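User: Can you predict the 3D structure for this chain?
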Amino acid sequence: MSETDLKDENIKKSSPKMTIFNIVLIIAIFVGLLIYMFSVDGIDNIIYLLQNVNYVWVIAGLFCLIGVWLCESITLYIPLKNMYPNHRFSTSIRASMIGQLFNNITPFSSGGQPMQAYDLTKTGVRVSDSLSALAMKFIITQIALIVFTLSVVIFQFNFFMHIFQDFLWIVILGFAINIIAIIFVILMGVKKNFIIFITTPFIKLLGKFHIGKWHIFKDVDATISRFEGSVENFHQQFLNMKAHKKMVLQIFIVSFIQSLLYYSITYMVYRAFGNSGTSFFQIITVQSFLLLIMTFVPTPGSGLGAEGGFLLLFNSIFTNGTINLSILFWRIYTFYLPIIVGALFLIPRKRGKTDKNL
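Assistant: Here is the predicted structure, written as C-alpha coordinates:
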Protein backbone atom coordinates (compact mmCIF):
# COMPACT_ATOMS: atom_id res chain seq x y z
CA MET A 1 0.00 0.00 0.00
CA SER A 2 1.39 3.40 -0.97
CA GLU A 3 1.86 6.40 1.27
CA THR A 4 -1.08 8.12 -0.41
CA ASP A 5 -3.30 5.09 0.14
CA LEU A 6 -2.36 5.04 3.80
CA LYS A 7 -3.38 8.67 4.10
CA ASP A 8 -6.69 8.02 2.41
CA GLU A 9 -7.47 4.93 4.47
CA ASN A 10 -6.17 5.88 7.90
CA ILE A 11 -6.27 9.66 8.19
CA LYS A 12 -9.79 10.85 7.61
CA LYS A 13 -11.20 13.85 9.35
CA SER A 14 -14.33 13.24 11.38
CA SER A 15 -17.64 14.08 9.75
CA PRO A 16 -18.59 17.65 10.78
CA LYS A 17 -22.18 16.55 11.43
CA MET A 18 -21.04 13.66 13.63
CA THR A 19 -18.61 15.91 15.52
CA ILE A 20 -21.36 18.46 16.17
CA PHE A 21 -23.71 15.68 17.31
CA ASN A 22 -21.09 14.32 19.72
CA ILE A 23 -20.38 17.77 21.16
CA VAL A 24 -24.10 18.42 21.65
CA LEU A 25 -24.39 15.02 23.37
CA ILE A 26 -21.47 15.87 25.67
CA ILE A 27 -23.05 19.21 26.61
CA ALA A 28 -26.40 17.49 27.19
CA ILE A 29 -24.78 14.93 29.51
CA PHE A 30 -23.02 17.73 31.42
CA VAL A 31 -26.24 19.72 31.82
CA GLY A 32 -28.11 16.56 32.81
CA LEU A 33 -25.50 15.83 35.48
CA LEU A 34 -25.86 19.36 36.87
CA ILE A 35 -29.66 19.13 36.94
CA TYR A 36 -29.51 15.73 38.66
CA MET A 37 -26.96 16.99 41.20
CA PHE A 38 -28.98 20.11 42.10
CA SER A 39 -32.24 18.17 42.36
CA VAL A 40 -30.78 15.43 44.60
CA ASP A 41 -28.32 17.38 46.75
CA GLY A 42 -29.88 20.83 46.80
CA ILE A 43 -28.18 24.15 46.19
CA ASP A 44 -27.41 24.74 49.90
CA ASN A 45 -25.49 21.46 50.29
CA ILE A 46 -23.55 22.08 47.06
CA ILE A 47 -22.54 25.58 48.17
CA TYR A 48 -21.49 24.19 51.56
CA LEU A 49 -19.34 21.49 49.95
CA LEU A 50 -17.67 23.95 47.56
CA GLN A 51 -16.89 26.31 50.45
CA ASN A 52 -15.35 23.50 52.49
CA VAL A 53 -13.56 21.53 49.76
CA ASN A 54 -9.87 20.93 50.47
CA TYR A 55 -8.20 22.62 47.52
CA VAL A 56 -4.83 21.06 48.36
CA TRP A 57 -6.26 17.76 47.15
CA VAL A 58 -7.91 19.50 44.18
CA ILE A 59 -4.50 20.85 43.12
CA ALA A 60 -2.96 17.42 43.71
CA GLY A 61 -5.55 16.02 41.30
CA LEU A 62 -4.52 18.59 38.69
CA PHE A 63 -0.89 17.54 39.05
CA CYS A 64 -1.93 13.91 38.55
CA LEU A 65 -3.81 14.90 35.39
CA ILE A 66 -0.82 16.82 34.03
CA GLY A 67 1.32 13.78 34.85
CA VAL A 68 -1.07 11.60 32.82
CA TRP A 69 -0.73 13.96 29.84
CA LEU A 70 3.06 14.01 30.12
CA CYS A 71 3.24 10.21 30.28
CA GLU A 72 0.93 10.00 27.26
CA SER A 73 3.27 12.32 25.37
CA ILE A 74 6.39 10.41 26.44
CA THR A 75 5.00 7.08 25.21
CA LEU A 76 4.53 8.67 21.78
CA TYR A 77 7.82 10.56 21.90
CA ILE A 78 9.96 7.46 22.59
CA PRO A 79 9.19 5.57 19.34
CA LEU A 80 9.14 8.74 17.22
CA LYS A 81 12.48 9.87 18.63
CA ASN A 82 13.88 6.48 17.68
CA MET A 83 12.71 7.02 14.07
CA TYR A 84 13.44 10.76 13.90
CA PRO A 85 16.48 11.79 15.99
CA ASN A 86 15.50 15.48 15.78
CA HIS A 87 11.89 14.90 16.79
CA ARG A 88 10.81 17.44 19.42
CA PHE A 89 9.02 16.55 22.63
CA SER A 90 6.72 19.56 22.11
CA THR A 91 5.50 17.93 18.88
CA SER A 92 4.56 14.76 20.77
CA ILE A 93 2.79 16.83 23.44
CA ARG A 94 0.72 18.59 20.78
CA ALA A 95 -0.21 15.33 19.01
CA SER A 96 -1.05 13.65 22.32
CA MET A 97 -3.32 16.46 23.47
CA ILE A 98 -5.11 16.52 20.11
CA GLY A 99 -5.57 12.79 20.65
CA GLN A 100 -7.04 13.51 24.09
CA LEU A 101 -9.58 15.84 22.50
CA PHE A 102 -10.74 13.49 19.75
CA ASN A 103 -10.65 10.39 21.97
CA ASN A 104 -13.14 12.10 24.25
CA ILE A 105 -15.54 13.41 21.61
CA THR A 106 -15.78 10.16 19.59
CA PRO A 107 -17.35 6.82 20.61
CA PHE A 108 -14.91 4.14 21.79
CA SER A 109 -12.09 6.75 21.56
CA SER A 110 -11.98 6.03 17.83
CA GLY A 111 -11.03 9.49 16.61
CA GLY A 112 -7.81 10.06 18.53
CA GLN A 113 -5.25 8.07 16.57
CA PRO A 114 -6.27 9.23 13.06
CA MET A 115 -6.13 12.89 14.14
CA GLN A 116 -2.78 12.37 15.88
CA ALA A 117 -1.35 10.82 12.73
CA TYR A 118 -2.80 13.66 10.66
CA ASP A 119 -1.19 16.26 12.94
CA LEU A 120 2.19 14.51 12.89
CA THR A 121 2.29 14.53 9.08
CA LYS A 122 2.34 18.35 9.25
CA THR A 123 5.73 18.16 10.99
CA GLY A 124 7.24 15.93 8.31
CA VAL A 125 6.57 12.58 9.97
CA ARG A 126 5.59 10.07 7.32
CA VAL A 127 2.15 8.52 7.63
CA SER A 128 3.51 4.99 7.87
CA ASP A 129 5.90 6.05 10.65
CA SER A 130 3.24 7.86 12.67
CA LEU A 131 0.86 4.90 12.37
CA SER A 132 3.71 2.57 13.36
CA ALA A 133 4.51 4.62 16.48
CA LEU A 134 0.84 4.91 17.44
CA ALA A 135 0.23 1.19 16.95
CA MET A 136 3.26 0.28 19.05
CA LYS A 137 2.19 2.73 21.75
CA PHE A 138 -1.35 1.32 21.78
CA ILE A 139 -0.23 -2.30 22.08
CA ILE A 140 2.21 -1.68 24.91
CA THR A 141 -0.04 0.69 26.88
CA GLN A 142 -2.95 -1.77 26.72
CA ILE A 143 -0.74 -4.56 28.04
CA ALA A 144 0.57 -2.24 30.77
CA LEU A 145 -3.01 -1.32 31.71
CA ILE A 146 -4.05 -4.97 32.07
CA VAL A 147 -0.91 -5.79 34.09
CA PHE A 148 -1.52 -2.80 36.37
CA THR A 149 -5.18 -3.68 36.90
CA LEU A 150 -4.39 -7.31 37.70
CA SER A 151 -1.65 -6.17 40.09
CA VAL A 152 -3.90 -3.90 42.16
CA VAL A 153 -6.69 -6.49 42.22
CA ILE A 154 -4.31 -9.19 43.51
CA PHE A 155 -2.80 -6.75 46.02
CA GLN A 156 -6.27 -5.81 47.34
CA PHE A 157 -8.00 -9.13 46.59
CA ASN A 158 -10.08 -9.39 49.81
CA PHE A 159 -11.32 -5.81 49.49
CA PHE A 160 -12.00 -6.37 45.78
CA MET A 161 -14.10 -9.47 46.46
CA HIS A 162 -16.03 -7.65 49.21
CA ILE A 163 -16.88 -4.65 47.01
CA PHE A 164 -17.66 -6.63 43.86
CA GLN A 165 -19.33 -9.71 45.31
CA ASP A 166 -22.61 -8.71 43.63
CA PHE A 167 -20.90 -7.86 40.34
CA LEU A 168 -18.46 -10.78 40.11
CA TRP A 169 -19.78 -11.97 36.75
CA ILE A 170 -19.27 -8.48 35.29
CA VAL A 171 -15.72 -8.43 36.68
CA ILE A 172 -14.91 -11.80 35.12
CA LEU A 173 -16.48 -10.75 31.81
CA GLY A 174 -14.60 -7.45 31.76
CA PHE A 175 -11.23 -9.04 32.44
CA ALA A 176 -11.92 -11.87 30.01
CA ILE A 177 -12.78 -9.50 27.14
CA ASN A 178 -9.70 -7.35 27.74
CA ILE A 179 -7.38 -10.33 28.03
CA ILE A 180 -8.86 -11.94 24.89
CA ALA A 181 -8.37 -8.64 23.06
CA ILE A 182 -4.71 -8.55 24.12
CA ILE A 183 -4.22 -12.19 23.05
CA PHE A 184 -5.86 -11.41 19.70
CA VAL A 185 -3.54 -8.43 19.17
CA ILE A 186 -0.48 -10.52 20.07
CA LEU A 187 -1.59 -13.25 17.66
CA MET A 188 -1.88 -10.61 14.93
CA GLY A 189 1.78 -9.91 15.55
CA VAL A 190 3.07 -13.48 15.59
CA LYS A 191 0.48 -15.46 13.60
CA LYS A 192 -0.96 -12.96 11.14
CA ASN A 193 -2.03 -15.54 8.54
CA PHE A 194 -3.92 -17.52 11.19
CA ILE A 195 -5.82 -14.41 12.32
CA ILE A 196 -6.71 -13.52 8.73
CA PHE A 197 -7.81 -17.13 8.12
CA ILE A 198 -10.20 -17.29 11.10
CA THR A 199 -11.50 -13.71 10.80
CA THR A 200 -12.26 -13.47 7.07
CA PRO A 201 -15.27 -15.88 7.21
CA PHE A 202 -16.82 -13.78 10.01
CA ILE A 203 -16.44 -10.58 7.97
CA LYS A 204 -18.09 -12.29 4.99
CA LEU A 205 -20.89 -13.56 7.23
CA LEU A 206 -21.51 -10.13 8.75
CA GLY A 207 -21.47 -8.66 5.27
CA LYS A 208 -24.62 -10.62 4.47
CA PHE A 209 -26.63 -9.04 7.29
CA HIS A 210 -28.57 -5.89 6.57
CA ILE A 211 -31.55 -3.95 7.90
CA GLY A 212 -33.34 -2.41 4.96
CA LYS A 213 -30.70 -0.47 3.04
CA TRP A 214 -28.28 -0.42 5.99
CA HIS A 215 -25.43 -2.95 5.75
CA ILE A 216 -22.85 -3.74 8.41
CA PHE A 217 -20.20 -3.68 5.68
CA LYS A 218 -21.03 -1.85 2.46
CA ASP A 219 -18.11 -3.44 0.62
CA VAL A 220 -17.00 -6.77 2.07
CA ASP A 221 -13.94 -7.13 -0.17
CA ALA A 222 -12.73 -3.62 0.73
CA THR A 223 -13.30 -4.37 4.43
CA ILE A 224 -11.26 -7.58 4.18
CA SER A 225 -8.51 -5.70 2.34
CA ARG A 226 -8.38 -3.00 5.04
CA PHE A 227 -8.36 -5.64 7.77
CA GLU A 228 -5.48 -7.50 6.11
CA GLY A 229 -3.60 -4.20 5.86
CA SER A 230 -4.17 -3.55 9.57
CA VAL A 231 -2.98 -7.04 10.50
CA GLU A 232 0.13 -6.57 8.37
CA ASN A 233 0.80 -3.24 10.12
CA PHE A 234 0.46 -4.84 13.57
CA HIS A 235 2.74 -7.65 12.45
CA GLN A 236 5.40 -5.15 11.45
CA GLN A 237 5.08 -3.41 14.83
CA PHE A 238 5.76 -6.67 16.66
CA LEU A 239 8.84 -7.27 14.55
CA ASN A 240 9.91 -3.73 15.36
CA MET A 241 9.28 -4.25 19.08
CA LYS A 242 11.33 -7.45 19.11
CA ALA A 243 14.22 -5.47 17.65
CA HIS A 244 13.87 -2.65 20.22
CA LYS A 245 13.31 -4.38 23.56
CA LYS A 246 14.74 -1.47 25.56
CA MET A 247 12.33 0.94 23.92
CA VAL A 248 9.41 -1.39 24.62
CA LEU A 249 10.40 -1.60 28.30
CA GLN A 250 10.63 2.21 28.52
CA ILE A 251 7.14 2.65 27.05
CA PHE A 252 5.76 -0.06 29.35
CA ILE A 253 7.19 1.58 32.50
CA VAL A 254 5.88 5.03 31.53
CA SER A 255 2.45 3.53 30.71
CA PHE A 256 2.41 1.78 34.10
CA ILE A 257 3.11 5.11 35.83
CA GLN A 258 0.42 6.76 33.68
CA SER A 259 -2.15 4.22 34.89
CA LEU A 260 -1.19 4.90 38.51
CA LEU A 261 -1.54 8.67 38.03
CA TYR A 262 -4.88 8.33 36.24
CA TYR A 263 -6.36 6.13 38.97
CA SER A 264 -4.93 8.46 41.64
CA ILE A 265 -7.20 11.28 40.47
CA THR A 266 -10.18 9.50 42.02
CA TYR A 267 -8.40 9.32 45.38
CA MET A 268 -7.61 13.06 45.22
CA VAL A 269 -11.33 13.77 44.62
CA TYR A 270 -12.20 11.40 47.49
CA ARG A 271 -9.98 13.31 49.93
CA ALA A 272 -10.91 16.76 48.57
CA PHE A 273 -14.44 16.37 49.96
CA GLY A 274 -13.27 15.27 53.42
CA ASN A 275 -13.69 11.53 52.90
CA SER A 276 -11.44 9.08 54.73
CA GLY A 277 -11.34 5.47 55.88
CA THR A 278 -10.66 3.84 52.50
CA SER A 279 -7.02 3.52 51.53
CA PHE A 280 -5.33 4.85 48.41
CA PHE A 281 -4.87 1.37 46.92
CA GLN A 282 -8.47 0.41 47.70
CA ILE A 283 -9.76 3.44 45.79
CA ILE A 284 -7.42 2.55 42.90
CA THR A 285 -8.77 -1.01 42.89
CA VAL A 286 -12.37 0.17 42.45
CA GLN A 287 -11.32 2.76 39.86
CA SER A 288 -9.46 0.14 37.83
CA PHE A 289 -12.68 -1.85 37.47
CA LEU A 290 -14.66 1.28 36.61
CA LEU A 291 -12.32 1.82 33.67
CA LEU A 292 -13.16 -1.69 32.43
CA ILE A 293 -16.85 -0.78 32.47
CA MET A 294 -16.22 2.50 30.64
CA THR A 295 -14.40 0.68 27.84
CA PHE A 296 -17.66 -0.86 26.60
CA VAL A 297 -19.86 2.27 26.70
CA PRO A 298 -20.41 3.45 23.08
CA THR A 299 -20.79 7.16 23.79
CA PRO A 300 -18.20 9.96 23.56
CA GLY A 301 -16.01 9.76 26.65
CA SER A 302 -18.18 6.85 27.88
CA GLY A 303 -20.78 9.45 28.83
CA LEU A 304 -23.55 8.27 31.19
CA GLY A 305 -21.77 4.93 31.66
CA ALA A 306 -18.86 6.63 33.42
CA GLU A 307 -21.08 8.70 35.70
CA GLY A 308 -23.44 5.80 36.40
CA GLY A 309 -20.58 3.41 37.05
CA PHE A 310 -18.93 5.86 39.45
CA LEU A 311 -22.17 6.29 41.37
CA LEU A 312 -22.77 2.54 41.52
CA LEU A 313 -19.28 1.55 42.63
CA PHE A 314 -18.31 4.45 44.90
CA ASN A 315 -21.64 5.32 46.50
CA SER A 316 -20.92 3.16 49.57
CA ILE A 317 -17.37 4.52 49.88
CA PHE A 318 -17.95 8.28 49.63
CA THR A 319 -19.65 10.13 52.50
CA ASN A 320 -23.37 10.81 52.08
CA GLY A 321 -23.99 14.01 50.16
CA THR A 322 -20.56 14.15 48.49
CA ILE A 323 -20.86 11.52 45.76
CA ASN A 324 -22.61 13.62 43.08
CA LEU A 325 -20.28 16.61 43.32
CA SER A 326 -17.37 14.15 43.38
CA ILE A 327 -18.60 12.69 40.10
CA LEU A 328 -18.67 16.19 38.59
CA PHE A 329 -15.10 16.95 39.75
CA TRP A 330 -13.84 13.57 38.53
CA ARG A 331 -15.39 14.09 35.10
CA ILE A 332 -13.93 17.60 34.90
CA TYR A 333 -10.49 16.08 35.45
CA THR A 334 -10.82 13.05 33.20
CA PHE A 335 -13.20 14.27 30.50
CA TYR A 336 -13.95 17.99 30.22
CA LEU A 337 -10.46 19.39 30.90
CA PRO A 338 -8.82 17.08 28.29
CA ILE A 339 -11.38 18.34 25.75
CA ILE A 340 -10.83 22.01 26.61
CA VAL A 341 -7.03 21.81 26.77
CA GLY A 342 -6.87 19.55 23.72
CA ALA A 343 -8.92 22.07 21.73
CA LEU A 344 -6.33 24.75 22.52
CA PHE A 345 -3.69 22.66 20.74
CA LEU A 346 -5.71 22.88 17.52
CA ILE A 347 -4.82 26.56 17.27
CA PRO A 348 -2.50 26.84 14.23
CA ARG A 349 1.11 27.71 14.89
CA LYS A 350 4.29 27.88 12.86
CA ARG A 351 6.12 24.56 12.99
CA GLY A 352 9.38 23.26 11.61
CA LYS A 353 9.80 20.04 9.72
CA THR A 354 11.15 16.94 11.40
CA ASP A 355 14.70 16.44 10.12
CA LYS A 356 14.56 13.24 8.13
CA ASN A 357 14.73 12.37 4.47
CA LEU A 358 11.19 11.68 3.30
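The two ends are 17 Å apart (CA to CA). Residues 1-13, 354-358 have pLDDT under 50 and may be disordered.
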